[in-house]
Amino acid sequence: MKIKNTMVLLFSSAVLGSTLMVTNPQVNPVIHADQAVSTVANTTLPDGHYVVPVRYQKENTNDQSTMTQYMGTQVTIDIVNGQAKLTIPAKNKTTADMLKKFTVSGKTAVRQGNNFVVTGIPANGLSKVIKGHVDVELPGVIKESQPVDLQLTLPKPAPDQNKSAEDAAKKQSEAEQRAADAKAKSEAEQKAADAKAKSEAEKQAADAKAKSEAEKKAADAKAKSESTKKQNSKKQSSKKSTSQKKQSSKKNTSKKSTSNKSQSKKTNSKKSTSNKVKEVTYTARYVKSGTSTTSTMNQYMKPSATMYQRNGDQYVILHAAGPQQNKMIQSMTLEGKASTERRGNDFYFNLGKRNLQTKKQVTLNGRVHVELPGIISERQPFSIKLGGRHEKNNVRQTNLPTGKAKAAPNEGRGTSSTSVAQGATTPMTTPAAAVAVTNGGVSTAKDSYYNYAAQYLKQGTSQSSVMQNYMLNAAHVEINGSMAKVTIFAKDAKSAQMITNLRLGGQTAHRSGNGFTFTIAKSALSSIITGHVDVSIPGVFSESQPFSLRLTPGFSGAPAGGSASNDASADPMSAAFSGGNANMMSAMMNSNAPAASLMTNQAGNNKNNNNNNHSKQNNGSKQANNADNIQDADPAAQAANKQKSDMNNTFLSIGGIISAVLGYIGTTLGWALFKG
């Protein structure tokens, strides 16, 4: 039970951490037209007290920020001598407690209860986007620091009272004149209609009277004629009556039969017509939302789409590229509507009372949730451009879905991505040589072998890249003269196989087992090294993204991956069985020997440093310990140290492998016992 609780806590941390990075469903504050104006104009409020709507947006965008979940929808403004005091409320005490620091326009807000108060804001700047920054922390669960933009909707300026009165009087006069004209016209039309109705009624009465008299005369003549015939043919009446009855029966039967056949034909015709639906096919191209750049969705979907109409509703069918891609797509929405049905590899959408299929070109917007457990999980917006219209007339389709339109669920609207390297929306850059910066990781070293901590960053930033989830946090460096051979390691074989091409410092890295080796100038070790990675799962997806690598000297401890959700220290058993960062078996068994020595070289180097320092102290040397584990520069001493270190490393590596195997077996047995 303790292990399960730990796993739940870790999963919750990952979910809450990613929540601040995605865009939530937009919930715009309601602003009445007579109460607000556009905030684009530079509106300066006079001194006074105001309560105005506020919108929290992602930095430099119009996209709604996750801050909306934590804050109230209105801000109180008090202006004195052109200086404004903003009182910004949190939704409740819980969300207020999560905000550890909140700055607005460079000024730190002071918390008062559930409110955050900022003073000294120029009143003439309130109509512009106000820059802010927030630190959010929920101890043991989440800790984030994010920028946020505040957009205030200011009140309208006071209207000109005199002009308003004149306009109102003028409008009232015009309205009264229009009413009088309409009334006069209505009365004239009513009189004409009454006269016409009276004339028609009199004519109808006369016609009805004449018709009634004519019918009465005809009836009398007919009755008289029938009476005469009955008297003259009394004997034959019985036979004639029988004959007439038979003929009448035959005629009635024939009429009924003909009527039934006609009705049957009409019914069948109606059924046939109802089963015939006009289908329209289009060529389909999926692009990134709001751009003309081809989206990764093109890898999952066929380049075609189908439309048809039923009961006035517009239906659209999108086709997955195959069963494997269809299985990866967890959900999809189109124009804010969820799919009404999935059949095979097809997604059916009801877009409501719209007539789109008559257009030659159509652009639709949607969102997709793609997931391959343990590898990729993305929620992305996309647009689909339809063209090449082709119409199929009266195609008989008796089984096309007619489900009602369904609104899309309130899912996250952002771009949460666990694909390798940077998110899919980050612009790609061409790999370049390492660029020197002031906070580089490694200083110039002498010829020797070293272990370093490896940190993978989003290119051009100090933020951790998702690449860190797939790589170990240790690197092996071999310095030879002015060149350095660097080996970095994937966290397991599955991650290594996904990487089809890797470039660092302008050089292509060569893979051996789970290791990737490249050679750069020794001077580049003091810089942040730029890289580029191509990742692919054949038949599923492929991606190409930039990243940066920072090396820091003096790595110690067991190598691990960078994902917080797979931290082996929190739960070694679950991490071992989930393929997380604690799974070091693949790296230790790698034929690229440096992987096996990552856990042992540090200990050997530290021991050799102690021996060297002890020897130097005995000889009267006052050299300090080398923080970078650099060996004695003397060639003979270096060779002896290397030979001794290699022997120690060999025995320690063998012992490490044996220990790892025994640990893996023990963990497996422990997990089996735990499961019952």
Briefly note the CATH topology name of the largest domain. Answer: Immunoglobulin-like
Structural class: alpha+beta
The number of helical segments is 11
Q: Low-confidence stretches at least 5 residues in length (pLDDT < 50)?
A: 6-41, 412-444, 563-635
Strand content: 25-35%
Compute the number of structural domains. Answer: 3
Q: How many angstroms does the end-to-end distance come to?
A: 13 Å
For the largest beta-sheet, the strand count, sense and barrel status come to:
11 strands, antiparallel
Q: How does the overall form come out from the CA principal axes?
A: elongated
Give the C-level CATH assignment of the largest domain.
Mainly Beta
Mean pLDDT: 75
**What share of the residues lie within helices?**
25-40%
Which CATH architecture of the largest domain is right? Sandwich
The total count of strands amounts to: 29
Rg computed from alpha carbons, rounded to a whole number of angstroms: 41 Å
Structural notes for this entry:
By secondary structure, the chain is α+β, with helices and mostly antiparallel strands. It has three domains: 2-152, Sandwich (Immunoglobulin-like), CATH 2.60.40.1850; 276-417, Immunoglobulin-like, CATH 2.60.40.1850; 448-669, Sandwich (Immunoglobulin-like). Helices cover 33% and strands 32% of the residues. The protein has eleven helices and 29 strands. It has helices spanning 2-19, 93-98, 161-232, 237-275, 323-328, 493-498, 572-577, 585-588, 594-597, 601-618, 635-675, and strands at residues 48-57, 74-80, 83-89, 99-104, 107-108, 110-112, 115-122, 130-138, 142-152, 276-288, 301-310, 313-320, 329-334, 337-338, 341-343, 346-350, 362-372, 376-396, 406-407, 416-417, 448-457, 471-480, 483-490, 499-504, 507-508, 510-512, 515-521, 529-537, 541-553. Helix 10 (601-618) packs antiparallel against helix 11 (635-675). The longest helix has 72 residues, at 161-232. The two termini are 13 Å apart.
